[in-house]
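Notes from the 1:1 (GR / supervisor)

We went over the backlog. Supervisor wanted to see one worked example end to end before approving the batch request, so GR pasted a single chain during the call. The sequence is below; no edits were made to it. Supervisor asked that the structure be written out right there so they could see what the output format looks like.
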Amino acid sequence: MKVAKKVSKGTKAGKMTKPKRTAKRLLVVANQAAAAEAARRARHLKALSCVSGAERELEELVFGDSLTGEEDELLRRLAGPRPVTAAEEKNLQEESSDSGVENEAKRDLLLKSPAWVDEDDEAEENVDMTHKYRKVLMKSDAETMLTKKKLKKRLEEQFQQAMGGVPAWADLENRKSSKRTLSDSDSDEDDDLLRRTGNFITSSESLPRGILKMSTCPPANQERFANGKLVTVQFHPSAQVVMTAGHDRSVSLFQVDGIRNPKIQSIYLESFPIYKAHFSMDGEQVIATGTHHSMFFVYDMMAGSIIPIPKVRGVEEKFLRNFELSPDGSFMLLIGNSGYLHLLSMKTKELISTMKVNGRCTASAFTPDSSKIYSYSKEGEVFIWDVRSRKSLHKFEDEGSLEGKCIAVSKNNQYVACGSSSGVVNLYTTDVCLKENRPKPVKAIMNLVTSATCVTFNPTTEILAVASRDADEAVKLAETLFIFLKEDTGENEPVTEVL
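Structure output shown during the call:
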């Protein structure tokens, strides 16, 4: 029994020694692995120090960076800033003193006076005032020479006199103060401008000052010349289209591009020589009257149909030739042969009312707001009618008129132009025409030697065109209040109408 107990104790001791040996073995293996890993990292760092920067970055990206470097960097950050040694502090002081010396040297260099001065630079140079471009700046004949400073001052005075003072863009002090006060708003506007795209350059509606430059373009109707005399040439109210009509009984439309001007369409009115044709204000219709007919035609461009108006009830006229359309597109005014003016509805082409002037009416014109009608008689009298009540508001005599021929009202309702058989075109203001019986014209245009048969204003009322059908190439352009600008000519045929 004792022997058996000893054997069992021995087996227990053997079982206890085996786990201890296994743990030691594992510890040795772990130490060897750690040493191998450290050796591998050391070899890797040595290899990185020998290769180029690009290769080192590639290897760090593939194999990873050294962990020891990251640990050291973390420890340095936790420890805080390193104290500066006495030697390093001395080096910093020497560097700061050197930079201060350099700054003082630069400052002395900037304040240093020049080595020499040219006396000719300080001397005032005189300018010859007898030159043809500077004669207008002379205040007296003895002032033949001026210094550059005085000439500059003289030019500034002349500019301020012409501009009525110093313009805002030329006042530097005000511009600087306004820039300071509006800096915030300007920055916002600039930001908004940079966020958007588009056409920020706009053209002025006014004509340029001085001489108007014109260039000849191909004929508008070059794809279909008229076989007879043209009586009307008019642009479409909204589209880039021109219409021609004449005695060849045709109305033609052309697309105007200034190069080819292709024909759009032509309509033919059988046995109907055209006296006058006109676009409706909406641009959808063309109204045409004949030379010896009491009827007229309406061409509906949207439907492509020709509508004859055989007779207007209440209008007893042998011939219907001349007519006018109101700017608002509501009325059509037929000018009769015995001084009668027939006001028609543009929508239904029915008679609204009839007015009469003394003698024979030769021309009429609506005001831009379609509230009044100016009627010019053969005797040289102008009647002003109210469209709503169809009553005469006033009457005045055109100065020096032997026989009235044409009349026009400016687009801004400021001027009235009356052309007579003597070739004189008188320009009046509408305010004076409504008050005086014999007003004085503000301008008399006497450049035509034949009867003035057509007058018209441009859309901005800056230019007045006068023409005569009794002579070849008789077209004159005049500035409404100042000087004549340019004489222009058309085809080598009598001018009939300018629209």
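Supervisor's comment: Residues 1-17, 483-499 have pLDDT under 50 and may be disordered.
Batch request approved.
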